[in-house]
Design a protein that fits this description.
Keywords: Sigma factor, Transcription, Transcription regulation. InterPro entries: RNA_pol_sigma-70-like, RNA_pol_sigma-70_dom, RNA_pol_sigma70_r2, RNA_pol_sigma70_r4_t2, RNA_pol_sigma_r2, RNA_pol_sigma_r3/r4-like, WH-like_DNA-bd_sf. With 182 residues, the chain is mostly helical. It has helices at residues 3-11, 16-37, 40-59, 67-84, 105-121, 126-137, 142-149, 153-181.
Length: 182
């Protein structure tokens, strides 16, 4: 069954349709929210809010033309709302333990590279970071990203292009700093 069909089922009172959507998308939405917020609990809260809104809209009979971009739009707005809160202070937990990985150098190297990339991505503004995550981590097409973020497709293309250029500068700068520090 298509995602949009599940939304229709919600409007007819079939609450188990939400279970199918949660099963299909929970991990993806969580990964997206976590990458944007860098906090497991907040990411889980965003996921719950996202599926609650999907459920509420489904009960009202709302069936989006394209479910996936609509769902990511809800999650993106939840992340934006978090960032807009004046009292919000981001805390970075840079000390992640690598317990249990002694002797597995290739796994550690990949984890460190991944952390380096995510830390670099997180230096970008939200508008560039969100399009890059949606494109490269969530594998959305330009048109889907445009629907998700309520921006024109050309703006998506520009933000991806500029975001990649800014990311390249950040990575080159950090690479030079790493060479100097050795």
């Amino acid at each position: 069954m298509q995602d949009e069909d599940y939304m229709s089922q919600l409007s007819f009172g079939n609450d188990s349709a939400l279970d199918a959507l949660v099963f299909r998308y929970h991990k993806l939405v969580y990964g997206y929210a976590y990458r944007l917020l860098q906090d497991e609990k907040l990411a889980e809260d965003i996921v719950q809010e996202t599926f609650l809104k999907i459920y509420q809209q489904g009960k009202k009979g709302c069936v989006p033309e394209q479910f996936k971009p609509w769902m990511y739009k809800i999650a993106t707005n939840g992340c934006k709302d978090y960032w807009k809160k004046a009292s919000t202070q981001r805390e970075h937990c840079m000390d992640k333990s690598l317990e249990g990985m002694e002797g597995i150098h290739h796994i550690i190297d990949r984890q460190l590279e991944r952390k380096w990339m995510i830390d670099s991505l997180n230096q970008l503004s939200f508008e560039y970071r969100s399009v890059l995550y949606l494109r490269f981590y969530q594998d959305l097409k330009y048109a889907e990203i445009a629907l998700t973020l309520d921006i024109p497709v050309n703006t998506v293309k520009v933000r991806i292009s500029r975001g990649l250029k800014y990311l390249e500068r950040i990575l080159k700068h950090e690479d030079r700093e790493g060479v100097k520090g050795q």
